[in-house]
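Data deposition worksheet. Section B asks for the primary sequence of the deposited chain exactly as it was used as input, without tags or linkers unless they were present during the calculation. Section C holds the resulting structure in token form. Section D is free text for depositor observations; keep each observation to a single sentence. Incomplete worksheets are returned to the depositor.
Section A, Depositor: J.P.
Section B:
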Amino acid sequence: MSAATVVLAQQVVTFSPKVILDNLDLLWDGVQLTVLVSVISFGIATFLGVFVALARMSERRAVATFAAGYINILRSIPLLVFIVFIYYGVAIYFGLTFATGIQAGIFAFSLQYSAWLGEIFRSGIQAVPKGQREAAMAVGMGPVRTFVTVILPQAVRVAIPPTGNMMVGMVKDSALLYVIGVQELFRNAQLLANRTFRYFEIYLAIVVIYLVLTTTVYYGMKFLEQRLRPVDVLASVERRFAPLERRRRERLRTLRDRIAAEAPPTRIVAPEATP
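Section C:
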């Protein structure tokens, strides 16, 4: 074995964190772009997903059929293929040009994830009992107010866990944008690894970074799920450092006392004696 081979073998098996520390700025740029694309795409997909869910439940057959076709077509296309198709196929055939690959990626993510989220939101809305909607309409609420104030808050609680899974998936799928030249986290790591030949260290770093990003999303959605969980505020144990919860508890107690004071007294009528 030659001396050059020995040196190369030692370089491969020797772990050196210095290459990661020396290129943190490049990895950080990739993290920022990954988070930016994921947040913008997920926001647009959530907005579109609500309309897709409402269209899917529409009483008009044409609208419901169109929404069902939209969902089935977009869900059947692999995301990698869809990204390439949007960036190259659509642009060439229709004469459209995307200024950057980032815009094409956001467009592709928003469309495909809106189909998945539309089905999630539809299941959440349909999980709300019909009696809730009928009761709201019976007291004079309009369809829009009923949906916003009665149906939507309950549907959101049902849809949060699967929506969080979709957000985690979008953060991971952002790595697919490397095929159209977007310098997100994986693309920057790939370029850095090819330049330094320290593949293990670089790819280990992005594995840890993706783990941190997805874990942050998971616990963020878990916190949101706990915050929106229906609880009896007056019966629950009061926490020491929760000023907002304390004020909410006081307002509810005041409202309860006012309702009890204004309620008419209950009269118990004794049954008449039979002869």
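Section D:
The radius of gyration is 28 Å.
Residues 24-56 form the longest helix (33 residues).
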